[in-house]
Structures are given as structure tokens and as C-alpha cells.
Fold these 4 entries.
Entry 1:
Amino acid sequence: MQGLPSFIPTAQKTAYLQQLLAVGFDVLDFGSFVSPKAIPQLRDTAEVLAGLDLDRTRTRLLAIVANQRGAEAAASHPEISFLGFPLSLSETFQRRNTNQTIAEALADVAVLHELCERRGKTLVVYLSMGFGNPYGDAYSPALVVDFAGQLATLGVRLVALSDTVGVSTPALITSLFTELLPAFPQIGFGAHLHTTPTAWLEKVQAAYQVGCRRFDSALGGIGGCPMAADTLTGNLATENLVAFLAAQGEELGLDMAALAQARLLAAEVLSPAVC
């Protein structure tokens, strides 16, 4: 929702997220405790959270934070299990996204991890621009491995390689996960892929075939990162991912009728906000 120009009323957000909770996903990224000036669409995250009924779902909630203040706010809610923090391999994007240097962001990661440990939460670090960047900043697979090593030293246990602007290739996805998974067995690595409708399959296949089992997605592939570029590269579509995993014989345990209803609701709630 974060990149959509028209504000979605709180009640509509809550109803849509409640329907997603009925599907039975592992984790739902439901909102952000960030500056309302930076992401005005998500300024009502606390109100949305208060309106959710979590009694009949197995799904755990994740909130994105961009600094220590946001992390403290998110951690004060017992309903939230995961705090997500974007750490970029690109100095330009780190400044653009969280108004920090990479060094400052890494220092925040250490503080946020300690906060999560204290408050019974789990920190998820998104390695933004994990497959390259459009700014001319240095990038290499070795840099990704170096960042992963620093996160492992800090004790971070969940890391999502994020293709923020959709520049990954199957070959690069394969090589990165092939190196990272055995090198850091204490970290659960996931794929946060932004992609075009025609390129998603080869990217998901590449990650899956080398052992990745954590994928982020959004219904209809709507969304993207508004801080990354002037135009959004969409998310991996949930319906495509579910179909792919089912074809691999994965037992997802999802309520498919609830998923179909969520797709209808997504078209109703999110499509008007795109305009």
C-alpha cells in the first residue's frame, strides 16, 4: 500500500488485512511505524492494528520500522511478532530510504536486535538493493556476503534479499543463495522480489531450486518501494507464488476460498488507490 497515491481509509485497510489473516499465511506485513511525512499512506498503522481480530488466525504480524523510535513504538504492541528494518547495500538508497548512512543503519540494527530480544520480537533485516542498484553505487555478490556476515555477527536470524528495483537475474539469484545458505546456516534467508509480470517465474524458480523457502509477495503484484525510483516495480504476485509452490507439491495449508475472497477485496480496496 505504501506507494499508492490515494489514502485508503482505515476501515478499508483493516477489512482487507482481516481477510488476509483468514487465508492462513505464515506472516503478514501489515503496516509501518515510520514517519507519516515519509509514508503518509501508513500513518494509521496503530489504528489498523487495534481493529484487527487475531483470535482466529495462525498468521503472525510484521511491522516495518526505519529507526529506533519506530522500533520502540512497534515493540510496545504485543500483537506484533516481527520488526522489519531495511538495510541497504547502496549508500544512496540508505539515505533516500531512512535518511541514514549505512554505518548509522548498521548501528541501528544492533540496537533493534537487542530491543527485539528483550521484548520477545524477531528482527527481520531486508538487504535492500541486494541484487544491484540504479545509482552507480558499488555492488558485488561479495558485498552481499560481507553484509550477511556482519548481520550474523550481530545475531540477526532472518534476512530477506531484496530486489528493490527488479534488476535481479536467475543466475545472480542462484549464485547468491547457493553461497549464503551454507555459509550462514544460523540465518533464515528469504527472497523479497520486485519483478515484472513476465519475469517472476524464472526468478522464483531460481531461488526455490537452490533451497530458498521464504518468499514475500502481494496480491496482484501491486506495490513496490516509493523511495527507490520515480516509477514502481511491482511486487511478486501472491497468487502466482501460491500456484508455483502448489505445483512443487508444497503443502501450504492455506484457505483457498479465503484467498479468492481476498483477491476480490484487493481489487476493490487497492485499485482505486492506484489512480
Entry 2:
Amino acid sequence: MKTLDKKLEILRKNPGANEFIIADAKDADMAWGIACPGAPYPSNGDGRFYSMNEFMDQMREMTASGLIDIMLASNSVMSRLAHDEKLFVDSPVTPAIRANDTSDVWISRVANYRNKPSIPFRSADINEAQYGSLTAEPDGDPKVNLGLYSMTFNNDLDADYRSLVEFKAFREDAAKAGFDYFLEVFAPNVEDCGIPAEDVPSFVNDALVRSLAGVGRAHWPKFLKIPYFGPKAMEELANYDSDLIVGILGGGTGTTYDAFKQLTEAKKYGARVALYGRKIKDAEHPITFVGYLRALSEDKLTAEEAVKAYHGDLDKLGIPPKRDLEKDMELTDPGLSYAS
């Protein structure tokens, strides 16, 4: 049994249980293009980015570490790792794909789509995710049976209506295929959406639970993924309905303390899942970084202790930190939108 399934089963029976789910979100090729794998560190100054082959090597290494519960990637990556290599067959890690790619995550180095209200779109196909082909007939258990579906509401009637129509279509397709999903709702991607910044958490919470009100619970998401807006908004959502397991997204890279403090604070106020992409990808040593995320999720040390210990480990590995300890202990605002 996958660790994700075990933990979800425990949390369904006891929402106050101490179980915590960690996902490595390596689906950046659905957004960033050539730059998606990030740049090698330390840099030699040539300006190159990792190749997708190198990026997939990082996914193989992270999966083998046993530190995560979910590996989230694109359909194209999972066609290699899950279907061709069968990487997850004997692994406790659950493979997942990004099931849609709305226009606010189309982040090119030169184009600019993200300042317009999000338009729903799906380039991924469920049958292809499950069985490795658009035309393959179901044969045994699917190799991938979990997807991330995301929506971004902007207080724009036409745009938000289209998002809900497409969400309904996705749910119908997923239900017919027996495909599980988890639901992500971003903060508005349009800066001037008519909602004051202090009201955005309420807007996101309301939009999220309203979008599920017409959905039978048998087809609710396995869990949620939202920005961490702070204690009040997290407690409000976590306490709304015990059938909703709430998770957080990482947002921008930020400092090491940003990531470690965010996880501990979000967990304290009700989150039971953390899905980190850039915070893991951009770390000096991702495996060591995730090891501390896991320790923090198990309440083995404080965020402050974890940052200091992480710097100690970097020193032992001979890896220069991106920031000195004092700077890396600062709490910054890495942003809440996907493009931050």
C-alpha cells in the first residue's frame, strides 16, 4: 500500500491525526518551458539550465529516497518513468500528473499570458496518464491514477464561469475512468481583480468550497492544495468540513526559513499536505532539504533548528549556501501566485 493511501485512510478516520503528506512537485515543464528544470548549482556562469534528462534523474533519486509520498510530474515525464520504467510499481511513492494547465501557468521567458484572467485548458489525457497511450485499452491496474486539477478564480464572471464548466467536464471524465484527483485553487492571477489583498484568502476559501457544493462526496478531491494565507484562513478551511483534507502549495522559492516555517505553521493550523516545487528544486541540496521537511512534519525539531542544521549539513557536503545563515533565517514574502 502506498504511503499516501495509508495516510489518507488514517486522516479520514481521524482528521486530527498527526499524519502529514509531502509531495515533490516536478511538473514545471507544464509551465516554464526550457527553464523548467532550473539551473545547476553552484553555477559555472554559462547560463544553462538542466536538461529534462537530468531533471528526471532528480525525480528518480527523490523517489528512491523514501522521503516523499507523491511525485507530481507532467504526463510526458510519467510516460517515461511510470510506464516505460515502471519506477513506481514497487515504490511506496504515488505517481501523479498535472491534469490541466490553465493559461495562468503558461510562463514563458518572453511571452506574457499570466496578467489576463485564467483560461481553463487541458493538454493531458486521462487514458494516456493511466495506460500510457491515448488509444490503449485498460489492461490491469493503471500505472498512474492521480492527477492535480487546478483553478484560478479572478472575480470575473465570464472567466470564472468557464473554469467551473471545465471543472465539471473534467470530473465527469475522471469519474468514468476511475481516476482520482486533488484540487488546487490559486490566488487571483490578475492584480486588479477588484478584491482587496486582505480579502483574497476569504475569496479563495469561498470559491473553493462553493465549487464543491454541487459535487457528490464520492467524487470530491482526495485533498486540496491552496496558498498558505496564514493561520486564520487555514483554520477556517480546515474546520469547514472534516471530509476535506487541506494542503498547501509552496509559492516562490524564498529562504529556507520561509519553507520550513510555512510547513510547521500550516500544519499547526490544520494543513496535512505540503506540495513544494520551486522550494525543493531550487534548494542547494534537495534530498537534504526534503529530509528536513519530513522531520518538521513529524515534529522532530523547530523550523529555526532545521535551518541551522541544514546549513551544517551543507557545510559537511562542501556545498556553499545561497545565503549566509543570518539571511537564510529571515522570513520573506515569496509570493502566492504560480508566476511569483
Entry 3:
Amino acid sequence: MAVPKRKQSNSRTGKRRAHDFLKARELQACPRCGAAKPSHVVCGNCGHYMGRTVVEVE
């Protein structure tokens, strides 16, 4: 069975994990109401998506 010859240093471990953090979602303005929303998602404020109303909002 393959076993590492030496312990991996904290510095090397940190370098490997440098890109493992969570990234914030990209938000875009809704073209109809201007509210911030993730792309390719129905607007929670007005229910608009791809040029038409998908969800009726009160």
C-alpha cells in the first residue's frame, strides 16, 4: 500500500486548499423591476423570467 514518506506541511496543505472556499453568487438586476437576482432564476420580486411572467406575485 502506498504511504507518504513524510508528513505534508501546513503550508503545502494551505496552498492546496486555497481555492476550496465558497464563492458568492453572481447577482444581476432584473430587467423588469431592477431587483438583484441570480442569473437564470425567476425574479422573486416580480415573478418575471425570460421576458414573461412565470409566477404570479401578490
Entry 4:
Amino acid sequence: MKEMNFDALKEFLGEQFDCASSEIEISPLSGGFSNLTYLLKTPSGKFALRRPPFGYKISTAHDMGRESKVLEALQKAHYSKGPKPILFHEDEKVLGAPFFIMEFVEGKVLRNKLPTSGPIPTEDTFRKLSQNTIDSLLELHKLELEDSGLIQLGKPEGYVQRQVFGWTDRYKHSQTEPISEMDKTAEWLINNIPQTENKGFIHNDFKYDNLVLNPDNLFEIKAVLDWEMATVGDPLMDLGTSLAYWAQVEDSDILKMFNLTHLPGNFTRNEVIEYYSKHSNLKLNNILFYYVFGLFKVAVIAQQIYKRFKLGQANDPRFASLIEVVKVAAKKAEKSILTEKI
């Protein structure tokens, strides 16, 4: 809870929810490697609070105002799986950073280990969850953009090129040691940017641990979390990122830390591609590019967080191993380029 002033926060929340500050409970919610999430228990109900991580800032990925606007826009687009935004507070005096509050969706989130309590997912459960996950991704990609106002959240023209150059630049600024496979992958991506552009609303971090599931039926998706990188762009870039996180049984153990897709019953990456292609009008003949980009992006995200750890700006012990994620993802990207296989 470094730097967290809970007294100031409770006083602020007491005014917002019209209750005494002593009636408010705040506790951390275990999550990913990025923005911090806290559970707020108030007389008015439960809410989730999001704030940026401490220390080294990573581009605009931690823009609380933007994430709040995304959730507002999704409500207007009648998208049912985005938590309802409650409040955005820009002044840093209360919490040391801007933050926003949204509804807390009760349910189960599958992290990198099977649940120790409640129902354990079976092979059949994972099969259905795989399908429902891709269905949910397709639903998002097919949202109407103009009337809903979602189009205002991004610039789809030139999106792929901007992403390739942008993530390459982020890598250069966060690099802590030479990794030749990262340099080769960046060069290949720059030289192989597709000419065809697609347009849709995209999440940019769509994987199991960002899904809230029905605890009684773990294949039912109640909500999608972590909208900080959502925008309007090429849906195949979104699919590529999901494929990069979609670990299979033969993959390196360190790449299995982000998703339980390697367990029996889950779609394989090729089954994901097949299913998405069958239910989308987008052409996936160049899916290798988007997959390689996804691996590169995952590596850069890990590199950025690892740099924060190296600089002493983040002390989470999990961060120490992230440099290995960079190396393994980079090698996997290079192998995919050479073999043309996903």
C-alpha cells in the first residue's frame, strides 16, 4: 500500500457516498501487473477503484480518465459486459494520482492457477469458455462505432503502422539489456506492415484474467475488465495480442503465467483463429503478422514493468522474472517468423 493515504481517501469517499469515513473498508484486489485495483465496501454497496501503478509511467496506458470514458462510451453503445463507471477524480491530492471508481462485478477471475475453492473448471468448461471468450471478442469488434460515439476514442486510419512504430519506440526506451531477437522482430514487423486496414472497437488486453466469470458456471462471462488500452483500431491487432497470451501445453512455462489456456479442453491457437475466421468477415490470411506483433507487444509490456522494478520504482517480487518473459516471447516471435507457424 505504498504512498496510499487511506484517511484522505475515506474522507473523500464518505462525502461521495454520504456516509461516515469509518464505514468504508478498502482492500487490494489481486490482479495483473499494471494498474492497481482496490475493493471499496461502503453502506451503498461494493465498488472497485482503479489508479495507476507507482513510479515509472508507461505511456498513456494508465490514463484513468480515458478508461472511465471508455466505460461510459460502452454503456452508450449498449455493451453489457463493461462495468458501469461511477466517478472519475483527476486531483492527485486524495490518492497521489488520478483514479476512478466503477461498479464491482461479483464473480470469479481465473488467474494463472486453478481455483483452490469452489468449482474446478473441467475440460468441457474450458472448451465452452474458449468459445465464449472468442464470441465476446467478436461481439466487441462488431460494435457500432458512429452513433454510439465509440469512434471518438481512436483513430483507425494508420493504426497498425502507429502501433508497430510506437511499441518499437517503447522498447528502445525501456530496454535494460541487448536481446537480438527483439531487434530482429521489430525490424520484421516494420518491413511487413499489412496494406489492408480493418476498423473496429478493440480491448487490446483480452485474456482470461480480464474476465469475470459466473462462479457457478465458469464458462459464463459476466464482465470484461481492464479497458485502459481500449481504442478504435484494427481488430486483428486485438486478436493477435490475445493469441500471444493464449499459451498452449508445449509452450514455455513462463508464458503460461498469464493464462490458463494451456490446460486440457481449451482451444488451441489455431482453433481460435479458425473459430474467429468462421464468425467474422475479416480476412485472416496474414494472421502471422498480428500474432508476431502480439508477442512483441507482450514482451515490451514485460520489459517496461521490469525496468520499473530495476529502477526500484516497483517492488513486487513477480516483476523480477519478467525479463525472462521478454526473452522467451522474443524467441517465440523469431521462430514464428522463420517457420511461418503460430
